[in-house]
Structures are given as structure tokens and as C-alpha cells.
Design a protein that fits this description.
Elements lengths: L1 H8 L10 H34 E5 L14 E5 L14 E5 L15 H12 L10 E9 L3 E4 L6 E2 L2 E2 L18 E4 L4 E5 L21 E2 L3 E10 L5 E2 L10
Antiparallel strand pairs: 1-2, 2-11, 3-4, 3-11, 4-9, 5-6, 5-8, 6-7, 9-10, 11-12
Amino acid sequence: MTTGENEENTPPDGPPADGRTSRATRKKRSGWREIPLLIGAALVLALVIKTFLVQPFSIPSGSMENTLRTDDRVLVDKLTPWFGATPHRGEVVVFRDPGGWLSNQPPQHGNAFQRGARKALTFIGLMPSADEKDLIKRVIGVGGDTVECKRGEPVKVNGKPLDEPYIHPGATPCDDMPVGTVKVPKDHLWVMGDHRDDSRDSRAHAHEPGGGFVPVDDVIGRAVVVAWPVSRWATLPAPDTYRTP
């Protein structure tokens, strides 16, 4: 009978017998479960990059103007030191406080949640450090160099006067804080800011324990590029004046 044939060909209520809908549902649910794994993998990758390769750094002051301005973001190469590379004259480097250079720490702004979130993002490398426990300066002399910083004269390294067009307009090479002649110990650096009149660098600590020298082991890495703001994007090579000591 016609009625009986229709009843036999009409599928019962519910999912098809082959289970295709059930498999699609399970696949959709599985996709949602993968999202936390992908986020976790991305965070781990960011942490690895920050720890071993590149780290963002926020410029905390005007001591490197006009090369670097307050709140500029630079990317710091942390990879090459792992292969034994040491800083060269003229490079801009980020380094840990050798001791007492940052005696007055500014308080962090924001509530407890904001400060915690900032620390977490900084830890995994998604946000520059804002605690100002690190410094950024230009390497003037390396281990074994003789640096002269005298009033009314250009800075000299191993007797050669430096051509320093990067110095902040209106500032002098050493007039505001002359220290005479210093000999840089092995595995140490003599560093100075580009805004000489507004930089507490090696000169300011020359008569303190440590002599104002920065141990190479305290160097985090070399600043290689200004990444933010985009309008100030620029690389940070060592100037030509440093090529011949």
C-alpha cells in the first residue's frame, strides 16, 4: 500500500543513523577546547622570545634625547650575548643597575589589579618594563680603553676625539660633569647619555664604589630599533666615529 511505503521511507525523529550530526557536534566542542591550548602556546612562545631573543623596553627619562625620547619603545636584542658577543663602542645598551644608580624608584600608577596585570604582561614580554630597574645609555668605552672627559673638549677614546652629532642640541660633550681621564677595566663599560646635561651616567658615579663602570655581565642587550611610536621608527647603529678607536 502507498501509505505503508511512505511510513517505511520516513526517517525516525532524532539524528541520522550514521551519526554525522553527532560527530559534527563533537568536533565543534573539540575546537572550543583547543582555544585555551592555542592561547597557552602563544604565551609560552612570547615568554621564550622575551627571555632569549627580543625584549621591549620603555624609555623612562630624557637622558638619551634626542636619539630616544621619554616613552619611546625600543626592541632589545638579547640573543647575541648568548653566543658570547659583547657590547661595542657606540652601541646603545640596556643594563641592570650596577648598584645605586637608581636609588629613587618612582611608584607604579594604577590600582592593585592594574599593577598585577602590568607585571604579568611584562613578565611574558607583551609589555615593556615600567619599574625602571634597568637603564639605557650609549657605550663610550670598553675594557682596556682610555676615556677622556674634560671641560671644553670633545670626548676622546684612546686619544681620538669623537664626533658626536647625536648629542642633544645645546648640550656639551663633558662641560657639565668633567671627570678627567679614566681607564676602563676589563669586562666593564663606560657609558654616557646622549643628553649630557640631563644624564646621570658613568660620570655621575665615577667617585663612587665601582668607579662608574658597568660590568658586561649586567648588560641585558643592545637596543636595535625604535619600535614605537611608528612615526619615530628608526634603527640604532653605532655611529661611524666609533669604527676606529
